[in-house]
Amino acid sequence: MNLLITRPQPDAESTAATLRAQKHNPLVAPLLTMEALPLRLDPCRTFSGVIVSSANAIRAIPETERSKLLGLQVAAVGERTAKVAREAGFTKVKSAQGDAEALARHAAKIFKDAEHPVLYLAAENRAGDLASALAAHGIAVQTVVVYRMTFSHGLPHAAHDAIVARKIDGVLHYSRRTVDAYLHLAEADNVLEAALAPIHYCLSAEIGARLIAAGAPAVRIAAHPQEQELISLLPPDVP
């Protein structure tokens, strides 16, 4: 299958490598760019742990600040985020293997006896209210925005041309923000109808709902919000 990958780098290339190994033909066209925001932690503040809902939160932490957190327990949304955290030097990492709701439940179990607030390293635009969800369990959370995802100025030329020529069989969607970028940029380029025509493979029902509302005729939802589940939706690429 000719598959369009719109998620940001470096995750886009990792996904592309997985798809190539399965004999698919991926077109990497990131629609979002991560911008790390300034972070300076109060040296007098003590945290019981760290929560991350994206690998980008780990990537956004400056080296000088990261060293202050490495000994803390980390609750990560999924295995990819957990892997990035371990590669960054965190040694106590547990994955929720799910979405934002699963992360909240996971963190509630891990930090149920926390003596100090838990540090939530968050995106500027994010789904759900994790702090409120954990407050219901008596867990204090300090949310610190460490990065934002900004839209590209337009669809990459290769993606635009492939969409217009109807050469894309499927589009993989990993986040609400990426779908918003895809729909916005396609409409701005006057190719929304063609952009909605392929099969859309979505990591969650929330992501799929946005595409259905926009008029996408074929939307597939992963059984669980994990990349292997998303990729398992793809038919084998038989010559």
Characterization of this structure:
About 35% of the residues lie in helices and about 20% in strands. Helix 10 links the parallel strand 10 and strand 11. It is elongated and about 60 Å long. The chain has about 240 residues and is an alpha/beta fold. The chain has one domain: Rossmann fold, CATH 3.40.50. The chain starts with a strand and ends in an 8-residue tail after the last helix. The strands form two sheets. A six-stranded mixed beta sheet has the order 3-8-7-4-5-6, sandwiched between helices. Helix 8 runs parallel beside helix 10. The longest helix has 13 residues.
Helix count equals 11
Please summarize the sheet with the most strands.
6 strands, mixed
Mean pLDDT: 94
Give the strand tally.
Answer: 11
Q: Which oligomeric state applies? A: single chain
Might you state the CATH topology name?
Answer: Rossmann fold
Poorly predicted runs are none
Number of structural domains: 1
Structural class: alpha/beta
Q: Whole-Å distance between the termini?
A: 10 Å
Rg from alpha-carbon coordinates: 19 Å
Q: What portion of residues belong to β-strands? A: 15-25%
What sort of overall outline do the alpha carbons produce when their principal axes are compared? elongated
